[in-house]
Amino acid sequence: MIIEFRCDRAQPRLWMCRESLRVNDQDIPVQIAWTTTPDPHPAGLEALFELERIVLRKGKAGGADRLKTIPERPRAGNPDVVVDFTSAAPDPNCAAELYLRPRFNGHAGEGAALSAILAGDLPVIEIVNERDGTVMDRGHPSAEIAAGLSGGLDTVMARTLSMLPPILSGAPRLVPQLAAPANSVPRNPAPFVLRGVATSIAKEIYRLCCYAPHWHVGWRYADNADVWRTGDLSGPAWNVLGDPGNHFYADPVPVKWQGRTFVFFEDLDHRTGKGIISAIEFDGNGPIGAVQPVLEEPWHLSYPFLIEHDGELWMIPESTAHRDVPIYKCIRFPDKWERHATLLTGLELADVTITQHNGLHYMFGAWRDGTGGYSDTLAIYYAERLFGPWQPHAANPILMDRATTRPAGNFVTVDGRLWRPVQDCSTGYGAALGLAEVLELSPTTYRQAVRHLLKPGPLWTGRKLHTLNRCGQLEVIDGSRVQPKTTALLAGLRSGDRSSQWDWHSALAKPISRRIH
């Protein structure tokens, strides 16, 4: 197979330098055909991109950076597949078997992607077969790491490239129905970029004064008024699990084991930006005792998925920083865990959540191929046994949709119907939580439908909501709030905790962690 990228000669970008695409576990070479297009290009765009590179990305290279010289690679021959990233008319002499064109909110070319970003959002991406107009795949990327206009373009193109291999592999595509806003007329990008730079500076000042974001765990005892039955946050009032201020708590998972109930959660130290897994015991009235660390590795850990299997308790914490999916065995409950096996390796798979369905184990996770957002692409794996071997779903990655992809807690079965909570990152990472009914699940198919959407408000104050779990009558969620560093400082002064005093001074001397949580 020969793949050819058709690119705009007037706008050569770093992302265009892909020398191959990995299709069906083979690296397929990519050649480039440079094309002159009639697209208008905003004046001063490259100067503004350079400003963003210096201020927003601290000098780091990005996929939207302009190439200083156009690489001229030797052509391998007539292409079997053309991927046309321009808005120009197809070459009438092209005899490629497959002619694909990415569209952004229904329009082709870089200008269409930039117009969508300038209008305030990343576009819906469609990969269209130009021969018959069929939409081969559709997705809506998340923008949690997209810094400015150039960062938005980089994210959009990175996700566009990640959509191509599944199409070319011949795998079945589960094309989601996503509403795309109409593209506006391209505007002057200067105000957008300058506003983004000013916002970035304001955020840096905010991070000097506050821990951001600061997640906290909510809990309550609910009989039949739980979220899955009401479809909202009504019912008994939510309580907040106290934290020391310079740590945040997120991703709560309750479990009853050996007659005791504990809530496990990510415990992140703002001073280091690294998370461990901690736990606290609950009785019938609320938390008792102190928070205790239960699992730590040299790398960041979060989202402690727990599962009972063969009379033992197991944990699968998120380990994307280590690029694997490990499973730990509980040696002594709740505070001693031993790494037992690696279920998958060599990939970023966030917030792994497993369910059993029709005799198989299914593993869901937010997949990332090293570029783009962390919360917009779903991958599923399946196995006959918990410890594998795990096989990829035939349609992996299943879908790209920032509103319905990333797991947000354990699967539940209500009246014989299988459900899963999902993070809705439409307006930012972890901004809301959807309740999705699983309509079809097999090694070759998957369908879901979000029935309810939960957002922070009067019933759960704060800025975000992205985890939901339950054990018996104990129901837990999480959210984020503004956490001034002075709060932790004053608490440390009152208690004589010198580590809190040191934290305030060191925060002014080093960059604040930019973890997405």
Task: Give your account of this protein's structure.
- The protein has two domains: 3-187, Rossmann fold (3-Layer(aba) Sandwich), CATH 3.40.50; 204-507, Tachylectin-2, Chain A (5 Propeller).
- It is 17% helix and 40% strand.
- It contains seven helices and 29 strands.
- The strands form five sheets. Strands 1, 2, 3, 4, 5, 6, 7, 8, 19, 20, 21, 22 and 23 form a 13-stranded mixed β-sheet that branches.
- Residues 493-515 have low confidence and may be disordered.
Task: State the gist of this model.
With 517 residues, the chain is an alpha+beta fold.
Record field, number of beta strands: 29
- Output mean pLDDT: 89
The level of helicity is: 10-25%
**Biggest sheet details:** 13 strands, mixed
Number of structurally distinct domains: 2
Q: Roughly what fraction of the amino acids lie in strands?
A: 35-45%
Task: For the structure shown, list the relevant keywords.
517 residues; alpha+beta; Rossmann fold; Tachylectin-2, Chain A; 2 domains; 13-stranded mixed β-sheet; 7 helices; 17% helix
Reconstruct the topology from this structure.
Layout: E1 3-8, E2 20-23, E3 26-35, H1 45-55, E4 81-84, E5 98-104, E6 107-108, H2 110-118, E7 125-129, E8 135-140, H3 148-169, H4 189-209, E9 210-221, H5 227-230, E10 239-240, E11 247-257, E12 260-269, E13 274-282, E14 287-295, E15 302-309, E16 312-318, E17 324-332, E18 336-345, E19 348-357, E20 360-368, E21 377-383, E22 391-392, E23 399-401, E24 412-414, E25 417-424, E26 432-441, E27 446-454, E28 468-471, E29 474-484, H6 485-495, H7 498-507
Parallel strand pairs: 1-3, 1-4, 4-5, 8-23
Antiparallel strand pairs: 2-3, 5-6, 5-7, 7-8, 9-10, 9-29, 11-12, 12-13, 13-14, 15-16, 16-17, 17-18, 19-20, 20-21, 21-22, 21-23, 24-25, 25-26, 26-27, 28-29
